[in-house]
Write a structure and sequence with these properties.
The complex is a heterodimer of chains A (500) and B (532). Chain A is built from 17 helices and 15 strands. Chain A is α+β, with helices and mostly antiparallel strands. Chain A folds into three domains: 299 residues, no CATH class; 93 residues, no CATH class; 60 residues, Arc Repressor Mutant, subunit A (Orthogonal Bundle). In chain A, the strands form four sheets. An eight-stranded mixed sheet of chain A has the order 5-6-9-1-10-11-12-13. In chain A, strands 4-3-14 form a three-stranded antiparallel sheet, with no helix packed on it. In chain A, strands 2-15 form a two-stranded antiparallel ribbon. The chains are: A alpha+beta (500), B alpha/beta (532). At the A-B interface, loops of A face helix 12 and helix 13 of B. Bound molecules: zinc ion. The site of zinc ion has 8 residues of chain A, from loops.
Chain lengths: 500, 532
């Protein structure tokens, strides 16, 4: 959507991309919006809770504890898979990914390796260079780790505390093919995936809160060649903007290294948002051996066609379909994208336009403009609009503005009153008095009177001073506000120019 | 009831659990008296046996008092209420020290779990409480159930009450020895490769490994998840069956526990020997040739063949059968079990509980110190075996191949069930109880002690062992192996064999060294083992 508002991607990276092709794959971990954790009944509402208060033997990895699959989490990944047109297998299984780290209580993470819950998906996106389709290799389920809190000191004095509240929370990992070519594509993909996950309600996907974690694998190869270059993994990108910038930085860094014949190494680099650069976190001389094997504590999971069909039937309208529908209603693609990206805007837009009392464009302008401000000032009401207003009432008032029954200015005042106290739109329109004077002849009568009464202002106008507004105001006063100010200004100018 | 004399109290320990059930309901004895008698005997006789790692008198007596209160209430409510009480109500029981009891230890025989107090009850602990059983304490075992002699316990070995210079088998050696030595009428063990059946055989008691999925593993310290099963020990089939009935059944917290009803047959096995023996008429048993290898003890071979003849004489049809993939079972088992164990034991890192060495320069040095000092040599050996088998480049050649062998082993059995066999009959162990130290130097020798039991685990099947006489004065066990969920039939078979051999002279024999255990100066098993 808001491509125009973005900072331009590194031009240095663009220069590199004239000689090299970037090969970019994105891995995104999303926390799912389940009530309980992936393999136990502990609540996932641990945000802001005291450390180690949302735990049980299972998510603490105590001896004898066993996992039980969270069906809701499975459904969320199936829903995601369906939303990206992926294949859902009839049978999936769980594997253990074995490694030692203090944030991993069992010494292994239960994940999916051989058979992901969703495979071979697609996500179309719009970029400044046109449409692009991101190929998604897989989406699978796994469990989150605990959180380490490092204390002061070093060496033997260094202490690290472990908060297991997050341990065992459900995570969905979504992996793309390495067919992304620019930082912008990567950013747009992450934005579109976030929008999709929020639209289908499976994840809040807030990057700053760690609910959506983006990692990029970036390598370069000379244009026209096939073999992959040395791959670098980039982490710690905490915003969409940093995704685009970190990748642009890597493209630039790797390009210069290749140009200068400097060797690149397989490594994991972190994005430093303050310094706007990536730094080495650890070298990857050997690939990690996680010793994956089927999780013996969980039988394979059957995903029968009926279950998939039920999930498919429960999917809401997807963002891409919504944008297409809005464009068909007469909105521009920019407005369609802006409204689709904002849950309160799209709720209000759908509710108001459902009344069919106002043109879609008028509704869109209201929803993205004045109404957005009103919504920000106070929470949306149950109908999805602001204050005491009803979608039908707003629609009637917008219709009155669009048809010229009231002036835009009066209409806005009526809308404000409707929002503030819920006065019926019909009453407001009745009280607004007669329809605005749309007859130019009648207006010209008022204009002539004002010009006659203000010779000084007329002289100033002829001298090039900005007094058209003053004269317009005098005319509006004379009509008791029952005129379209814009039309009056035009007529005043025409009249005075003729004079001159 | 008037207080009992010490001798009269000790006589209570001779009772079978099913006798206790009758006496409790009749008001002849109280649960407290039963618990107190067994606790007294255990405290008196365990120095030379070391079957127990912890005994909790206070908790046991409190549970016994609660059981007595429920008994009184039921008695007042009438015969239906009394009949509704589980046969295990008021009966003392011992748990292998890998079963979680809230507020109690669960060492799994390892230093690395020293100091760990379980904050929750295992499913079977809950079930036992619900049934009204009285938990006396926790029994000794090979570290993390890895072993066949209980010599791999970090807390010292257990002796065999038939010969205090010999092992009780393992890994549930403490549970088997405690039942054999009348310290408890029944006990709980786990069987991953034979760890219930083999020690039951060597201690002359009855033990069953149920079908995989019959008993919840929730709260049981894991060794090898796809092979572990909880099962009962008793001094006869009826007692072991009643205990299984109390703990079996679906548990939502164990996804591998099966939603299959627990048969009430388990608590209504025939009391009469003739009635029990009558079950054998027309039953068809297969005798797998592969379970009688060239190296097995001649005495064991003789006892098993006599037992088979006795079954035949009682009207059973006996046919030789073949399980051709048996010879690969041991090798495949020693890939699958260590692979799962290497992962299951990764959680013992000293971060959250138990043995923990800190103060190293980084977390890795703390791990190495904690695990290096906390695990014994056999556990380390299996962790290394399993880690190797799962490593990149070896996974297909070892782990995947072992899984394929496992499928073939299972198919061998399936073909026989399809042919209508009621059960297979085989020795439980290829030898009688061996002396301390006899097999500790050669791990593979020790592994072979499970050769007749571990194929059953690989196939997920139930198996039962029942005493069938002595060889060189030491117990021999007769194993019945059944199709999945055939526990009731296996208990009927074992009960029938008890009926057939009710008059046999060996049936009246008691473990030879029970008297020696009464000696306050008796050497501990660790002291005896040190001499070897
Ligand atoms: Zn939990």
């Amino acid at each position: 959507m808001s491509d125009t508002a973005r900072t331009t991607p590194s031009t240095a990276a663009d220069a590199v991309l004239e000689r090299y092709e970037a090969v970019i794959g994105i891995e995104i971990h999303c926390q799912l919006r389940t009530n309980s954790k992936m393999f136990c009944g502990c609540s996932t509402a641990y945000d802001g809770a005291a450390p180690n208060t949302h735990n049980c033997p299972v998510c603490l990895g105590l001896p004898g504890a066993l996992p039980v699959i969270n069906r809701q989490a499975v459904e969320y990944v199936i829903a995601t898979g369906l939303a990206i047109s992926a294949q859902i297998p009839e049978r999936t299984q769980w594997e253990r990914k074995n490694y030692f780290y203090p944030d991993l209580p069992k010494g292994y993470q239960i994940s999916q390796y051989a058979i992901p819950l969703a495979a071979n998906g697609l996500l179309p996106i719009e970029t400044s260079a046109g449409p692009f389709v991101v190929e998604i290799t897989r989406a699978h389920l796994e469990e989150d780790t605990a959180k380490l809190v490092h204390g002061e000191g070093s060496g033997a004095d260094r202490t690290t505390l472990v908060d297991f509240n997050r341990s065992g929370a459900p995570l969905m990992e979504v992996v793309t093919e390495p067919t992304i070519r620019t930082g912008e594509q990567a950013r747009r993909y992450a934005e579109e995936l976030q929008l999709l996950l929020r639209a289908i309600g499976v994840s809040d996907a807030d990057m700053e809160r760690g609910q959506m974690r983006v990692e990029a694998n970036v390598s370069l190869r000379p244009r026209g060649t096939e073999p992959f270059g040395t791959r670098v993994e980039v982490k710690n990108m905490n915003s969409f903007r940093s995704v685009e910038r970190a990748i642009a930085y890597e493209i630039e860094r790797q390009g210069h290294a290749l140009d200068n014949g400097e060797p690149l190494v397989m490594e994991t680099r972190g994005w430093d948002d303050g310094r706007q650069l990536t730094y080495r976190m650890r070298a990857k001389e050997t690939s990690d051996d996680y010793r994956y094997f089927p999780e013996p504590d969980l039988p394979p999971l059957r995903v029968d066609a009926g279950w998939v069909a039920a999930v498919r039937a429960s999917l809401p309208e997807l963002p891409s379909a919504r944008r297409a529908r809005y464009v068909a209603l007469g909105l521009g693609s920019y407005d369609a994208a802006v409204i689709t990206a904002d849950p309160t805007m799209l709720t209000a837009f759908d509710a108001i336009s459902a009344a069919e009392s106002a043109p879609a464009k008028e509704v869109a302008n209201f929803v993205t403009g004045a109404h957005a401000k009103a919504l920000k000032a106070g929470d949306a009401n149950a109908a999805g609009t602001a204050g005491a207003s009803t979608p039908a009432g707003i629609a009637v008032l917008l219709g009155a503005i669009a048809s010229g029954t009231v002036t835009r200015q009066v209409g806005r005042e009526l809308l404000d009153r409707h929002i503030a106290d819920g006065t019926q739109a019909a009453d407001l329109l009745a009280d607004a008095g007669p329809s605005p004077i749309s007859d130019d002849a009648a207006l010209l009568g008022h204009i002539e009177a004002v010009i006659a009464a203000n010779p000084r202002a007329v002289a100033d106008y002829q001298a090039g001073k900005p007094v058209a507004g003053f004269l317009t105001g005098q005319v509006m006063k004379a009509t008791g506000g029952a005129a379209d100010a814009a039309r009056v200004t035009t007529l005043v100018r025409e009249r005075l120019d003729r004079e001159g | 009831m008037s207080p009992m004399t010490p001798d009269a109290a000790d006589a209570l320990t001779e009772l079978h659990a099913h006798d206790m059930a009758g006496a409790l309901r009749a008001g002849i004895v109280s649960a407290r008296e039963l618990a107190a008698a067994h606790l007294a005997r255990t405290h008196r006789t365990d120095q030379g046996l070391h079957a127990w790692l912890s005994i909790d008198d206070e908790r046991a007596l409190a549970e016994a008092d609660a059981a007595d209160a429920r008994l009184s209430a039921a008695r007042a409510a009438g015969p239906d209420a009394l009949a509704a009480l589980h046969p295990m109500h008021g009966v003392p029981v011992a748990l292998k020290d890998l079963v979680s009891i809230r507020g109690g230890q669960a060492t799994a025989g390892s230093r690395i779990l020293e100091g760990y107090i379980a904050p929750y009850d295992a499913h079977i602990t809950e079930r036992l409480r619900a049934a009204g059983a009285v938990i006396l304490g926790k029994t000794n075992m090979d570290e993390f159930a890895m072993g066949s002699s209980t010599e791999h316990s970090a807390y010292g070995p257990t002796a065999n009450p038939w010969d205090l210079g010999r092992v009780p088998g393992g890994s549930s050696g403490g549970s088997a020895a405690a039942v054999a030595a009348f310290q408890t009428p029944v006990s709980i063990g786990t069987d991953t490769g034979g760890s219930i059946r083999q020690p039951a055989s060597m201690c002359g008691v009855t033990g069953m490994r149920p079908t995989y999925g019959r008993v919840s593993r929730y709260g049981i310290v894991a060794f090898a998840s796809s092979l572990d099963q909880v099962g009962p020990f008793g001094r006869d089939a009826r007692d072991a069956a009643a205990l299984l009935h109390a703990v079996a059944g679906r548990d939502e917290r164990d996804s591998t526990s099966a939603p299959i009803a627990v048969p009430d047959d388990l608590i209504s096995l025939p009391a009469g020997d003739d009635e029990a023996a009558g079950w054998l008429r027309g039953k068809r048993f297969g005798i797998p040739a592969e379970y009688f290898p060239a190296g097995m003890d001649a005495g064991v071979d003789a006892r098993i063949r006599e037992a088979i003849a006795a079954l035949e004489a009682a009207g059973a049809v006996v046919e030789p059968v073949s399980l051709p993939h048996t010879e690969y079972a041991l090798a495949a088992y020693y890939i699958v079990a260590p692979a799962e164990a290497s992962s299951n034991l990764a959680r013992y890192d000293g971060v959250r509980f138990g043995h923990s060495i800190r103060g190293g320069s980084d977390y890795l040095s703390n791990y190495l110190a904690t695990r290096g000092g906390g695990f014994g040599p056999e556990v380390k050996r299996r962790i290394m075996l399993g880690t190797y088998a799962l490593s990149a480049g070896y996974y297909d050649a070892f782990y995947l191949k072992a899984l394929k062998v496992r499928t073939l082993i299972k198919r061998d059995f399936d073909l026989l069930w399809e042919q209508g066999f009621d059960a297979l009959v085989a020795p439980t162990a290829p030898s009688v109880a061996f002396k301390f130290g006899a097999k500790t130097a050669d791990p593979v020798e020790m592994y072979l002690a499970d050769a007749c039991t571990l194929p059953v685990n690989m196939a997920g099947l139930p198996g039962i062992t029942t005493p069938c006489g002595l060889s060189d004065g030491l117990p021999v066990g007769l194993q019945f192996i059944g199709a999945p969920w055939s526990e009731a039939a296996l208990f009927r078979a074992a009960r029938a064999y008890e009926g057939v051999t009710a008059g046999a002279e060996w049936r009246s024999m008691r473990p030879h060294d029970l008297a020696a255990l009464e000696d306050p100066a008796v050497p501990t098993p660790a002291e005896r083992a040190a001499r070897h």
